[in-house]
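Issue: copy button drops trailing tokens. Both records pasted manually instead:
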Amino acid sequence: MNSLSVFIYDFSIRIYSLGIFVAAFFNSKAKMFWKGRMHLLSEIARTLRYNEKIIWMHCASVGEFEQGKPVLEKIKSEFPQYKIVLTFYSPSGFNLRKKISLADYIFYLPLDTKKNAEEFIRLVNPDLAIFVKYEFWYHHLNELHKKNIPSILISGIFRDDQIFFNWFGKPLQKILHFYQMIFVQDENSFQLLKENGIVNSALSSDTRFDRVLQIKTEAKNFDEVEKFCNENQVVVCGSTWKEDQNIILDYIHSNPGSKLKWIIAPHEIFEETLQELQMQLGEKSVRFSQLNHADSEMQYLIIDNIGMLSGLYRYAKVAYVGGGFGKGIHNILEAAVYGAPVLFGPNYKKFKEATDLSEKKFCFSISGKSEFSNQLNELIANQKLYSSCSEGCKNYVQSRAGATTQIVEYLKKHIH
């Protein structure tokens, strides 16, 4: 980037930093973001041991970590001599650190200033850096590049409306040249990079396909949930927000005689959220934490914990994945791997798997209550349609596995 572009970039980072500082007085997430970076470099200096061989992976948050997890597992098994440093940008990712055994060290990523990046790379001194999906931090990548430390991006996805490909964002393309290799999810991304002179890329699919297949293989049984389902048809609603729940509740209240059972896993499990949902569902609802003591006639199961949702989709006749009436849908592959047709809201276009499955008519975007009702009823009533959707979902996931192996084979050439 030219000096003007770097100045504008640095100015934007500092304005953003100031915004986070001010927001920290009013917002708990902003407070965690700011507090977690206080004395961060000193903490890293105290924690890391001298002269260790290190591979560094950076993820924005929990979703990106799930994408990177299969690669980390392969690295740990094939290169046990390396320590893993894992960094997160967001508090939601960092707060999972006690549950992550794959990494030897877990930190926040410092704000992307020149000084921070120089000190961070000096302290960590990785032999290799891996970034997941949407991570383009100029100073950190530039510092890696200057020190001839290979960096790769995995599960990348690019669209022509991204800043790199607009006239005013062209200077930022230099960031993409810092990567030694960019593994992209789809042909469109590969061609877009190629057309813009970025040839350090390879088509590899998305590591999430490997991850959901692995989760399916390793998933444990939930005896209490199986007893709740009791061979009934079940709709599993995962990562739901208020807007999603309004649609679900409308269907439930409009079909009082329905024999469908429902498993609902809200994205946020604050006590007031759970209480409100249980009140709206009525006396036939029960929380998972109280399921052992519940009547077998219960019809609505509310998941009041984090971590078991991906294994619950096995019980789904049909799944609904939330977020599509907000910033974007959550992970539909966790349901699709079991052959459950997935319904989701209209904000899904940034997710290739949702676009693909929607175009193939194996999964369906809904715009509101009536469309949800009609589509769900058709999937339940039309066995031919259901079977086509179910097989289509399973085959779609299975046919796109293998990105992890491809990436690790590449890494073997650069890890010694």
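Record 2 (pasted manually too):
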Amino acid sequence: MDAARAVELDGWTVGIADVASLGVIQFSCTILLTIVALWHADTSSSRRKSRKAHFSAPSSIRRKIMSSALSKELRGKHNTRSLPIRKDDEVRIVRGKYKGREGKVTQVYRKKWVIHVDRVQRDKSNGATAPIGIHPSNVVITTIKLDKDRRAILDRKDKKSDTAKDADVEMVD
């Protein structure tokens, strides 16, 4: 018998020790799962690599990262906490110098990781106005611009939360 083996399951590398040689009768499932979670092949816990992946992310990934929380009313209605921000959503700024201001998103500037909100701007020395970039994590979406694709995303997220609630109910004796 081998003293130790390694098995790969869906990208997870699992080390399996020879139970008989260790004299161990039973492994705790939670300990095994904790050990397995540390060995995922595609995940690095290096700060340097995580930052590089974040700041060099393509636009499709930045869309997902640039999500904003939903207001309490929308959260209850759609059964989801956050959504990727898009142009024409109405937002309320909840952090920073412009806290409390509300407006419509005029631009999502993925390259700079900011959104521009109408009526949040400053005057330049030549008399022109320039929009001020707000990070999406500092706003709450108050009105969602719905189209068929966004509706499909909300429906999919709602189904996911419903199945999670059903699973909890089934486990009760």
